[in-house]
Model the fold of this input.
Amino acid sequence: MSDWQSLPFHINPNLLEIGSFQLRYYSLMYLVAFGLAYLLVWYRIRNEIYEFKIEVMQDYFVWAILGVILGGRLGYVLFYNLGYYMSHPLEIILPFEFSNGIRFTGISGMSYHGGVLGFILATVLFCRKAQIPFWRFVDLLVPVIPLGYTFGRIGNFINGELYGRATDAPWGMVFPADPERLLRHPSQLYEAFFEGIILFVLLWLLRRRSPFEGFLAGMYLVGYGVVRFFIEFFREPDSQLGFVLGPFSMGQILCFVMILCGMGIWYVRRAGNRSSAYRGPLS
Done:
């Protein structure tokens, strides 16, 4: 086995270990992602024509962080492992396992699609509270999201989790968590590149060319959904679920719904733009 193929075995996912307590790089990646998103939003407010104050964004990011984390966790419970957590409800919110005594495990299991729903709900509630126009606010945020998301997938890679399907490709890797020790697609890196960097570049280039408010939100949902749908063909389905509809995984089903929602936003917002005066492209 080459150095490249065995690379995951040489990566320690723990940044800090004290007894059974572990602080993982994955947690650090969340902090980097939110910090980077905040800086890019701050840059847009300073250099583009937006009426939002940075103090408002500071308040909002508290809402957004809670929405993403709670939504991601509850989404994992509902979409991917509901049967288990119905029998172990305390493990939904507590970082301990109670099956064999009490053991610290940390909170494991987050759903991207649940995180999106949590983000949307938190943003709707914040905009209502602060009396902010929702679609203009979302189009401010959306272009920066994929770059932050890139770090989440790098965190998955460092953890050696969510690896891909078996392959004979020369860039395949063996992951310690795989009991079969097969060469597998490093699908976490595929996602980091295509769902993260490529989608970020696309949305960043389009951020000043939005034909109507809500366009970038729809573009994000459609773009992410399409890319993730195809990458799922290289990613190993969750062991507790397998394939849920023919050859399709749960992630692909959720991405299909995501694509439809993005197209629905385009249709509704474009129709609304035709029937009312619009300020013009964001600049």
